[in-house]
Amino acid sequence: CVFKEAEHIVQVAVDDFDNPVLSVNNCPPENFLQQLSNITLNAEKFENSYVKFVKNPDDIEDILQSTMSFTHLLTNVIVEGKATSNASPNIELGDQLAQSCKQLGLSGVNLFKVLQSKAPENEVLEVFNKVSAEISNTMKIMEILVPNMSQDQSQKLGDIIERELKQMDIDIEEAARKIQELLNNSKAGDSGMKLEVNSKILDSCTDLMQAIKVLVHTSKLLQEEIVSQGKGTASVKEFYNRNHRWTEGLISAAKVVGLGAKFLVNAADKVVSKQTKFEELVVASQQIAAATAQLVIASRVKAERGSEKMLKVSQASKRVTEATGQVVATAKSCAEMVEESEEMDFSKLTLHQAKRLEVESQVRVLELESMLVKERVKLAGVRKKHYHLAGASEGWDEEDLAA
C-alpha cells in the first residue's frame, strides 16, 4: 500500500531528526521558506485528491501522485527545518523551529496511519487539518526568524505586487479577447463539422476565461480587505513588508495565472488550426485552473474567518473548476467526433486501399450476419422455453402446449 510506504519514509526522517550528524548541517532560511510554501500548496492538493478518491476509489492515479509528492516534500521540510534551526542566531527560536518541524513529521506519520485504517472521511479530514495547522505554525516561526526587509525593499516589493497584479489582469483580458477573435474567425471561415468542433472548443474556453476573470476580481477584493484590516496605521507597502512571504506568494500566483492564460490561448489556437492534439488544450486548462487555485490559497492564508469576500472567492473557485471540467469534457468529445469523421472519410483512398477496405468490410458483414443468425436461434429457443415454463405455471396440459 502506498500509504504504508509513505508512513515508513516519513518515520525514517523523524527518527533521524535527533541524529547528532544533522546538528552540523545548516540551511539558508530562504530555502526552507520555499519548501514551506511548496508543502502548503501540496498539502491542500493532497487533501483534495483524497476526497476525490473517496468518491471514486477506482481512480487511483491522482491519489498515488499526490501521496508521493507530499511525502517527498514533507521529508525535505523535516530535514531542512532541522538544518535551518541549527543556523538560527536566536537559540530559543531555533529550538521552537526544530520542535515544530518534528511535530509536523509526527503529524504526517499519523496521517498515513489513519489513511491505512480506512477511517471515516470526516476523521481523516480532521487529521489533514492538524497537518495544515502544523505547517502554518512552522511558517509563523520562520517569519519571526527571517530578518525584516529594509524600507527600500518594502518600496520595491509594493511596486512589484501592484505591477504583477495589473499585468495578470492584462494577460487575462488579452487571452479572453484572442479566444473571442478565434471564435469569430472560425464562424467566418469554417463550416460543417470543423465549425461545430471549433465553436464547442472555443465556447468552453470562453466560459473558463470568464470564470477566471470573476475569480481574479473577487480575489483582489479579498486582498484589499485583508490589507485594510491588517495594516492598522501603517501604509499598504509597510503591510506588504511585514507580511513579505504572503506578498511573495501573491506575486508568484499572479505570474503563474498570467502565464496560464497565455498557454491556454496558444493551445486553443493550435487546436482549431489542427497544429496540435486536443490533449494539449486539456493540459492548458488544467494548468490555469491550478494557477488560480494557488491564487485562492495565497488569499485564504490571511482571510478572516466568516469573511463574505472569502466566501465569494470560494464560490468563484468552484466555478473555475466546473468550467475546467467542461473544457476537458468538450475536448474529449470533439476528439471523438473528429476521429469518427476521419474513419468515414474515403475521399483520399487509393485503389488498393479501397479494395482492401471493401474486403475487410465484407468479412465483417458476414461475421455480423452469422452472429445475428445464431442470436435469433438462441432467442427462439429462449422464447420456446419461456412459453413452456409459463404454461406449466398456469396449469396448462401437454395438449395445450403442443397446440
From TrEMBL:
One of its GO terms (biological process) is actin filament organization. The keyword Cytoplasm applies. Keywords: Cytoplasm. SMART domains: ILWEQ. Coiled coil: none annotated. Residues 149-390 form the I/LWEQ domain. The lineage of its organism: Eukaryota, Metazoa, Ecdysozoa, Arthropoda, Chelicerata. This is Huntingtin-interacting protein 1. It is found in: Cytoplasm. It comes from the Eukaryota. Its main location: cytoplasm. Pfam families: I_LWEQ (PF01608). The keyword Cytoplasm applies. One of its GO terms (molecular function) is clathrin adaptor activity. One of its GO terms (cellular component) is cortical actin cytoskeleton.
